[in-house]
Specification:
Structural class: mainly beta
Number of strands: 30
Strand content: 35-45%
Helix content: 10-25%
Shape: globular
Strand order of the largest sheet: 12-13-14-15-29-25-24-20
Distance between the termini: 15 Å
């Protein structure tokens, strides 16, 4: 049986490193792993895609490193061991899988729903094999959680990674691709229109590739946040940690220049209300007493989630009436402060040093390609979204060592449309991050001859 030749063409200059390539052949091939031969005599490993293959047509994925163009032909089923993604000994008790992708060492967790930082689902450990530095060493933060509109304080519920678990389904599992799908239910908060919602998240990791891919799906919803109607838009939050006094990333930049406002009046108002509540609330619940113990003292260095969790109906520290009353005050004052004339927009053509800004926070405007990086260590995290997020919240807080990339605007207003694909690259990319972002946006074309 003659098998077709696959032709890859890259419209961008530069080298592609282990770029995922999906292709199909008009044949009913049952073997899970095949080899392919390139026009220069090299051998590629190709993994059969179980979910995309149909009678009479078989889909495969491989990874290819090339510049400009490349051709290869499917050859034969692979006999013997296939080099590729391997599984490692897990770190966390709720780990679903820890992967050595050939580029990343990462751990995916299902969460424990115990309401602490270490109960989050998502990626709770993440490093490149070359650098060997875990960007989430404590396991108390996570890459990949989604937040607003379900989990903003004004809705009385926060942080799905802490308050729910996910079931994880394996869609594809082979040497080239691991594809997982998380399934979860949003815990009900105070607002009726946001109750009973479910979500799923697809994660894809390929062998040796310096980026991974994900997308979020949520049941249809409509609510009001920051005085605006919000329909099917979410906040995706990626967190990183380096310990007090340090940050994993110390600069932020949006492709083509950064338009932003600095400071976070809402955070300051929420912190003030935390202080006031700790002092004046008459709540006598066990959970409130525990929050009072944790939040008395150096509140600026406390885990930020504690601020939100105090006003979370799921936690039960305060009753719903007190939550509503206190957050009504926070919301009203925050809306005014956010839009005062002295909160001017800044147009920056250079990377922004977020840590020196008020509240160590900026709110950039719409973008589809963004990056956080370290100005001295060359490490960079780069995000491309298949549709722009309407705004971002970037935090690089040395006091606690916490860094965040979130797709929300002022007052926790979610801005990323549901269903958008996100590609996230990480490596020594500070000086060429825009080129990496272009590659994330524009994959090579694939033609079957």
């Amino acid at each position: 049986m003659a098998l077709p030749t696959i032709v890859l063409t890259d419209t961008l200059p530069g080298h592609r490193s282990n770029e995922p390539v999906t292709f199909a052949v008009d044949a009913d091939l049952k073997e899970n792993v095949w080899t392919a031969t390139t026009s220069t005599g090299e051998t590629l490993t190709c993994q059969r895609l179980q979910a995309q293959s149909t009678p009479g047509k078989t889909s495969f994925i491989t990874v290819a490193s090339f510049e400009g163009s490349m051709e290869f032909t499917l050859a034969a089923p692979l006999t013997g061991h296939a080099e590729g993604i391997t599984e490692l000994e897990p770190v966390e008790p709720d780990a679903f899988v820890r992967l050595d992708t050939g580029y990343f060492d990462l751990e995916m967790c299902s969460g424990t729903a115990e309401g602490t930082g270490s109960s989050k689902w998502g990626l709770r450990h993440f490093a490149t094999l070359k650098e060997g530095i875990d960007l989430l060493p404590s396991g108390n933060n996570a890459i990949g959680g989604f937040y607003g509109p379900f989990f903003t304080p004004e809705n009385g519920l926060i942080n799905p990674p802490e308050h729910t678990t996910v079931e994880i389904e394996t869609i594809e599992h082979g040497p080239i691709l691991h594809h997982y799908r998380m399934h979860g239910t949003v815990p009900d908060g105070i607002l009726e229109e946001l109750k009973g919602k479910t979500f799923s998240i697809d994660w894809k990791f390929t062998h040796g590739t310096p980026y991974f891919t994900r997308s979020y799906r949520v049941d249809d919803f409509q609510t009001v946040i920051n005085g605006r109607s919000i329909t099917n838009k979410i906040t995706v939050g990626d967190e990183f940690e380096a310990g007090q006094g340090e940050v994993v990333f110390d600069r932020f930049e949006a492709y083509g220049g950064t338009r932003y406002r600095s400071g976070d009046p809402y955070a300051a108002e929420l912190a003030k209300m935390v202080d006031e509540t700790i002092v004046t609330s008459t709540s006598d619940t066990t959970k409130f007493r525990e929050f009072r113990r944790q939040l008395t003292g150096d509140i600026e260095s406390a885990h930020w989630d504690l601020y939100w969790r105090l006003f979370c109906s799921w936690e039960g520290a305060l009753d719903n009436d007190e939550i509503r009353n206190r957050l009504t005050q926070v919301r009203a004052s925050s809306h005014v402060l956010a839009d005062l004339p002295d909160r001017k927009w800044t147009i920056a053509n250079d990377p922004v040093n977020v840590s020196v800004m008020p509240h160590e926070t900026i709110f950039p405007g719409p973008a589809s390609k963004t990056a956080e990086f370290h100005s001295e260590l060359d490490r960079a995290m780069i995000w491309w979204t298949s549709a722009p997020s309407g705004a971002f919240q970037i935090v690089q807080r040395r006091q606690s060592g916490w860094v965040n990339w979130g797709t929300n605007g002022e007052n926790e207003c979610p801005e990323l449309p549901v269903g958008v694909q996100i590609k996230t690259a990480y490596g020594m990319f500070t000086h060429n991050w825009q080129h990496v972002a272009d590659q994330l946006e524009t994959p090579p074309t694939v033609r079957t001859d």
